[in-house]
Amino acid sequence: MKATARNGIPIEVSKDRLRADCIVAGVDPGLLTSENITDSVQALGIELNDDVQGRVAALVESAASGEPLAGPVVLAEGVAPVHGEGAWVEFLEEAEDQGDPDGRTDFYESRIPTVSEGQVIGFYHPATSVRSGTDVYGKPIKGVKPLHSVELGENVTLAEDGRTLQAAISGKLHVTRREVAVVEAVEVAEDVDFSTGNVDAPADVLINGTVRSGFKVCSPKSVAVRGAIESAVVEAGTDIHVTGGIVGQGKAIVQAGGDLFTKFCSDACLEAQGDITITRECMNSRIRAHGFLYVPRGKVVGGSVYARKGAEIKVLGNMSERRTEVAIGLDPEILPRVEAIDEEIRKKRESAAKVREKIGPLIAQIQRLTSEQREQATMLMFQADEVDVQADELENKKKQLTQAAGPDEKVQLLVTAMVHPGVAVIFGDKMTVFRMERKGPISIERRVIERVEEICAVDRCSGSVTVLPSYTYVPSEEPVEAVR
Fold this sequence. Notes:
The chain is an alpha/beta fold. The protein contains four helices and 35 strands. The chain folds into four domains: 2-77, no CATH class; 88-182, no CATH class; 183-333, no CATH class; 334-405.
């Protein structure tokens, strides 16, 4: 923000509101008096504390000395907030390094290590606290809370130093965005095929090979696959972790009660009650993440995607304008049910209104009615009230349905590199379709603009907001013509 007061003293406030500079270049030194500078500072609403007054005095002294003034002169500085950092684990190579060269956990990699009892897994780094800052106006700037923080799960312990993390039993090292644990697992030495048959185990399952086409793996706990999943069915009560990818040929069904990790997927149906992470790419698949969807290093092309809590994707669509549909927030599958409830509410409201319209003239002259007519009018009025009560109950049912199928807070779709033409983005009952490519990083979200809810694209570099043309989304209809 830059402003020039009537006395000709220009002051510029940084975008983060943590610094205010006096732009002295080209300003008549005679104007740089304490009164003029102070007036300009106060005109912008900048807090005139002791530090600011000291800086103003120093600037006035420099101007009075006749020394040439150039460049911006800092008049006010805020205190930057301290953003919180979630707890994380620095893994050792002996535990089959899970992360970047610096040893930090990288949840985008899909590896499935095993550990021995007493083995040192790595080092635990606890979470850091969030502290608010203060801008140059004296107003607080909130620190950002971490999205994720790793907790210590079952069968892992901290040594006396409070940092060294050890395995309490021999088993599979189970790593998600939220937890590090060691679990005992039913281990399949090679592929799941005709030599093993289907796998239905009550414990965690570790498959050292590939789940071949036509077979099924089920567990009320987690499933880890070191190979790939072909056109098979894999179901887990908690997490599913696939080192390779999922090549579904239109028949693969992979369902996780927790998080789901895979390198890539094509022509498959994936659903997780938690987050879904796809390291490389997702092609022509049906994805349903009731948590967050992460494809931060790859692309999503074709198919349909739903992410209740938001998504981060590097590239959406491709140059051939393949139709790619991404729904964020409210589950689009409930929209037909919501529409049916709305229609039923409408009919009941109209029915009650017609009854009241019919008995209106009778009520107006109720003193002239016979007892029988009064009884009939009362009964009709009672029926209208009953219908309204039923409509109110349907309204509550609709509210509960949308709350259960929608996000708990504001959500967004973050695209870090590119959105190609042919991509449809859906927020609840609104949809926008891109006709021209748009470079990232941008976040696509639903905002209230001039009292109307719109789908907007927010440039993450400049902060500029663009309202995108949107239409009513009806799942059963063909997509509308693409818009710019």
